[in-house]
Here is the input.
Amino acid sequence: MNNFINKLERKFGKFAIPNLTMYIIALYAIGYIMMIFRLNGLFDYISLDPYKILHGQVWRLISWVLIPPSDGFSILMIITLIFYYFIGNNMERTMGTFRYNLFIFSGIIFMIIGAFLSYLIYLLRYPADVVQIMEITAGFYNMMYLQEMVFLAFAICYPEMQVLLMFIIPIKVKWLGIAYGIILGVECIQGLMDQNYAVFFAIGSQLLNLFLFYLQTGRMSRFKPKDIKRRHDFSRNVRMAPKGVTRHKCAVCGKSEETNPELEFRFCSKCNGNYEYCQDHLFTHQHVK
Here is the structure.
């Protein structure tokens, strides 16, 4: 997958939008201004409604991104958007502008596909009520779930970073990510069980996007037979090495095959010099120039 994305970046990288998170928040701001001036009724004309799109209202394919991720504007929402701006910018620096753009726009495309899949199922199961059902469920298709996937991607890249929960309790991002992932997974399964296909496809489409992002990190390679054999050979060679001598050591955290034998280590081809990193910092470190 990385090779394919690298080819895309070489061909279309010049079209990537720098600081994309700022533009997304600007779209949220427009949606909140509409709420403040009690123009919420306009959301009915810009929501992601496949039935109306198929009947000529094609602007809904784009306009739904104006619908903000919450129903009300508050100080807490301002803080949430500031935090989202922080993690969004960090993810863009970590992934690169093109890959971050790809993550965001693929999430948008998956959301549109999910909306049409739910419409198809509702059309087959409830043909007489499909128009009313789509009007009710269109509100589930907004940027909220995509924003949550950005946070989960951040938790994957920076699991040891600490944040203040409720501005008081220090907690590592990985625990918030695990808790949030479980909640979203339960909501997705519950939506399927309750035949609420809008919720199922809205969350499921974004979880699929997150899974594709996880594949880009290369962490699924540990399950390949070739890599399993390589780790076995590596462990055997480590046992043969003199005691106290480490062959691999992370340039960021200092972990080695002695202190953390479960980790994998790689040299970075983009750093000037022989810098080696563990699997937790291979994709998140600052390149040495």
Summary: The chain has two domains: 2-217, 223-278. The mean pLDDT is 84. The CA atoms of residues 54 and 229 lie 52 Å apart.
